[in-house]
Amino acid sequence: MTTPAMMYVHDWRAWQPGRRDTSQSRLSVAEKPAGGHVPAMLRRRLTGIGRALCDMLAEIDANADCPLLYASRHGDGERTLEMLNTLAEEVPLSPARFGLSVHNAIPGVYSIGRGNRRTQQAIAASGDEFAALLVEARGYLAQGEPAVIVAFAEQAIPARFAAHFTTPVDTAAVALRVSLTPTDDAWALIPRSLASDDTTEGSPQPSDLIDWLCGTRDELHCHRPRQAWSLVRAD
Amino acid sequence: MTSELEQELKHLIIDTLELEDVTPEDIDPDEPLFVEGLGLDSIDALELGLALQKRYGIKLEADSDETRHHFRNLRTLAALVEERRTA
Fold first, then answer.
1. Choice between A137 and B1, residue whose per-residue pLDDT is larger
2. What confidence tens digit (pLDDT) does each residue in B53-74 have?
3. Which domain holds residue A177?
4. A41 inside 8 A of chain B by CB
5. CA distance B22 to A54
6. Residue A100 maps to a domain
7. Does A95 sit within 8 Å of B21, measured CB to CB?
8. Alpha-carbon distance B28 to B77, whole Å?
9. Is B47's CB within 8 Å of A95's CB?
10. What ipTM describes this predicted complex?
11. Which domain range does residue B42 map to?
């Protein structure tokens, strides 16, 4: 078996409202992201996380010509539950809310707003989103794409659903531009297989990725596949 | 001259369609509401139809020419509500 080609992180942006670590220029902690790159008539349909993602994507894919791989484990849980409640009460659904309840709603609005007609994928992987994103990214890069954007976004679990969930989820979003090409300022993404008895928490969420990108966490662990990733920083 | 009902409909449009950057003064009663003018889209048309049903008890066919006429601008919309409101 040949060793898979190394992947590199060329740029990244992150958003986590209220986070304290504000020294990072690539991190926004704004409570209300502007979404300034999307026309107002489209922007009105985006919640904070959608606006944050559109802002981040405009910065790391300035020409809007990279494929976009987007992942979220829970999607827009609040709106989904609200719609289910509405259905249960036999009240007609809001067409606009319904139209934006699909998992690829944010990439879709971004694509229309920025005129990016490249491939988009929306992934939910039951806690293995980061690993799934890297697998997909590797596929596109192996097919000859010069670079792909990998985005991961999560919102806090809605209060009425929280009892079904043991791990709290932080509202956060992160976007990386990755490729197979090393450059002076790119960070190498180093995989390591985990021992079968390693029981470290293995479902990283976007806020964990931000810790890792900011350097306050050395490795990002995933259960499926049993792998950990570290970054070799250029700066 | 904007009637009271037209003013009410302006607020209904802004609130229902979440037009965060639009004020009632921005909506010209004679300008088209859809595509040109205010620039609303097909999802807005469905949303507005639902709002008219909830607020005034008016039911419309989604794709009829008649509905297209009623949705042309604020004045035609006000005329519709005036004529057909049950609530």
1. A137
2. 999 999 988 778 888 899 999 9
3. 7-188
4. yes
5. 22
6. yes
7. no
8. 13
9. yes
10. 0.82
11. 4-84
